[in-house]
Amino acid sequence: MMTLDPHPLLDARWFLTTFPRPLGELGRVDAVVDLLRVGASAPLSADDAVRSAVRELLRHGGYKPTGRGKPASEYLVRAVSEGALGSINLAVDACNVASLHSGLPISVVDVTLATPPFRIGLAPEGASYVFNQGGQTIDLGGLLCLFDAGGPCANAVKDAQRTKTTPATLKTLSVVWGTNALPGRAADTARWYRQLLEAAGATTSEP
User: Fold this and answer.
1) pLDDT band at 67 (very low <50, low <70, confident <90, very high)
2) Are 140 and 151 spatial neighbours (Cβ–Cβ below 8 Å)?
3) pTM: predicted TM-score of the whole model, two decimal places
4) Cα 146 to Cα 174: distance, rounded to the nearest angstrom
5) Is 75 part of any domain?
6) Does any domain span residue 85?
7) Is 178 a domain residue?
8) Which residue, 85, 90, 146, 189, is the most exposed by fewest CB within 10 angstroms?
9) What is the pLDDT of residues 12-45, one digit of tens each?
């Protein structure tokens, strides 16, 4: 289901999640949402060394992870600190919690909106996709991305609008964008992320 192009720094982890009902019917899960705050009790915590290692991972292909193109995990810290991030749905909330506290960017896509096979590799120069409902695009050249048969659909900065979760989502694919400069962190993050989902009634599995 997944192939990886050679990369000297990437330590990615991925898994599937199946929800008992469509996300729109599950509602807010307080045990997850309550962790969406800086300083919440969590098994992982991020620091400047984690932030630096993640940026170095994204720089390797020539991408510049700064400004509006910074890793999603950095955006989360700011959004949570400013009170600008609320509950979206269980899939995204659990993703955000795991990313916030681990410091690793995480992508989550609706499997039914994507077309296998999946691949992780660098996007070519000139590649782009729409990342929000407003039609804004991100330049993907040199950035590590998750690809499906239709092209790039997610990365450590902004996921594609075409495969984002919806109220009808029942099954997702998550990718933890780890780096071998932080041994074990990607595996630990994926493990805790899966525990959060399973405690909320979802089932996770490795493809």
Assistant:
1) confident
2) no
3) 0.96
4) 10
5) yes
6) yes
7) yes
8) 85
9) 999 999 999 999 999 899 999 999 998 899 999 9
